[in-house]
Write a structure and sequence with these properties.
alpha/beta; eight-stranded mixed sheet; 11 strands; binds D-mannonic acid; three-stranded mixed sheet
């Protein structure tokens, strides 16, 4: 921070009260702020829907936002310039460990919605101290307070996220108290959603830029592309903001929309993340500009598109828009961020397409190439002691001790057990290893 910046006033509400809390959020990070907070701020009734947002593992975001009254700047970064906007919707920014406040908010009948951005891996973890464990204990308090039904809205890139959240919450509740699980079934509506807005991590340059452009100090601005999409399916028994004012779409059957997003956008991201880093690139835009990576992405798109057949999905329009979004030269979306937790992400991004292609009697080469690139990337990272984040890191390391084909089977097994038993797929993936190494 420059001397001039430290002289600037800190962003604050200047005595204007924060909106009353009606939404609790678990997983306060940049994406929550560029997406759900923005949609709520844009709703015509958004001022009535304050959010109490809790952090996940680390309290950092709460520590940065609390001194600025939950306010922050959203920088919408278009190819031709930045737009700055202060969003007023986060009424409270809280440490995830503050379960007393969480329970208090969940026990209030005015709290109508819990939104989640807890990352893919949390849905598989039934520990009591995870965001979902905390949510379940909070729901027990809500039940005791007779505060009424509530909607839980998953905003993670997980296939069937509404059902997956429901299953995880019911599992954890059942262990705690079978009657609580029954109450959850009657009183908690799990809403499935497909969320989309590219939101790279904030850099020190972004913080300095906001100070210079806006004339105040914001320790935690968020940078995102102008595009945003939210598709939802499910009931809101205690009401919701008019998110459709900001373009949210409410549908009966979310699966085709979810598949379009997970395969075409996230799948492309993963293939660019692994192939791109193997070829020495650091951002999505750089990888896209490399014909080798781009061809791999387009080949995967061709396969995925065969299984996205509803006309309203407008796959060719969607693909054209993605090319433009990925190429945005002013968004530095780092491939290392996307590459994390690959073993889980590929289950949603590569496996369904590979399975669908196999079921139709085709090889699924494009999807297999994504998996092979992940294997090369992982082996390379672990062998060179580079950063490697994956919930199955231990298993990946163990696989490295094996001979080539056994290793391929073991790594494939981490992504999908059935595919690991399909010799044709194993051969195919094995033959694709090394595709992206620089000669
Ligand atoms: C990315 C997503 O990090 C990743 O795995 O694919 O975060 C992606 O940027 C968002 O889903 C875009 O909406």
């Amino acid at each position: 921070m420059t001397d001039t910046a430290t002289e600037l006033p800190v962003l604050s509400r200047k005595g204007v009260p924060a909106p009353a809390v009606r939404i609790v959020h678990l997983g306060l990070g940049a994406f929550h702020r560029s997406h759900q907070v923005w949609f709520t701020a844009k709703a015509h009734d958004g001022a009535e829907w304050g959010i109490a947002a809790f952090t996940g593992r680390r309290p950092d975001a709460a520590l940065a936002l609390a001194p600025q009254d939950g306010l922050f700047t959203l920088v919408q970064r278009a190819a031709d310039g930045d737009r700055f906007e202060v969003l007023p919707t986060i009424a409270e920014a809280l440490d995830g460990a503050d379960t007393a406040r969480l329970n208090e908010l969940l026990a209030a009948p005015t709290t109508a919605i819990v939104t989640l951005t807890v990352t893919e891996k949390v849905y598989d973890d039934d520990g009591p101290d995870t965001p979902l464990g905390r949510l379940v204990r909070g729901l027990a308090v809500r039940r005791a307070a007779e505060a009424g039904p509530i909607a839980v809205v998953s905003c993670d890139n997980v296939a069937g996220n509404g059902e997956v959240a429901c299953a995880a919450v019911e599992r954890i509740a059942h262990v705690l108290d079978p009657e609580l699980a029954a109450w959850v079934r009657e009183n908690v509506s799990f809403v499935g959603t497909s969320v989309d807005r590219i939101t790279p991590r904030t850099t020190a340059d972004d913080v300095a830029l906001v100070a210079a452009a806006c004339g105040y100090r914001d320790a935690a601005p968020v940078v995102a592309e102008p595009f945003a999409s939210w598709i939802l399916s499910g009931e809101f028994p205690a009401g919701r903001p008019a998110w459709e004012d900001a373009g949210a779409l409410f549908v009966d059957d979310i699966e085709p929309f979810e598949n379009r997003k997970l395969w075409l956008l996230n799948g492309a991201h993963s293939i660019l993340a692994y192939s791109g880093q193997l070829r020495g690139h650091t951002t999505v835009a750089e990888a896209l500009a490399d014909p080798v990576c781009r061809d791999a992405m387009e080949a995967f798109w061709e396969e995925a598109a065969r299984h996205l057949t509803l006309p309203e999905l407008d796959v060719s329009g969607y693909r054209a828009a993605l090319l433009e979004r990925f190429a945005n030269p002013r968004i530095a979306h780092y491939l290392d961020q996307i590459a994390q937790d690959g073993s889980l992400k590929l289950r949603m991004r590569a496996v369904p397409v590979l399975r669908a292609e196999r079921a139709d009697g085709r090889s699924g080469l494009g999807a297999a190439r994504m998996i092979a690139a992940w294997m090369d990337f992982s082996v390379n990272a672990v062998e060179h002691g580079a950063e490697f984040h994956d919930p199955l890191e231990r298993e990946v390391r163990a696989a490295l001790a094996l001979e080539r084909r056994d290793r391929t089977v073991a790594l494939l097994n981490l992504v999908d057990g059935a595919l690991a038993q399909d010799a044709t797929v194993v051969d195919r993936v094995d033959s694709l290893l090394g595709t992206f190494f620089r000669p």
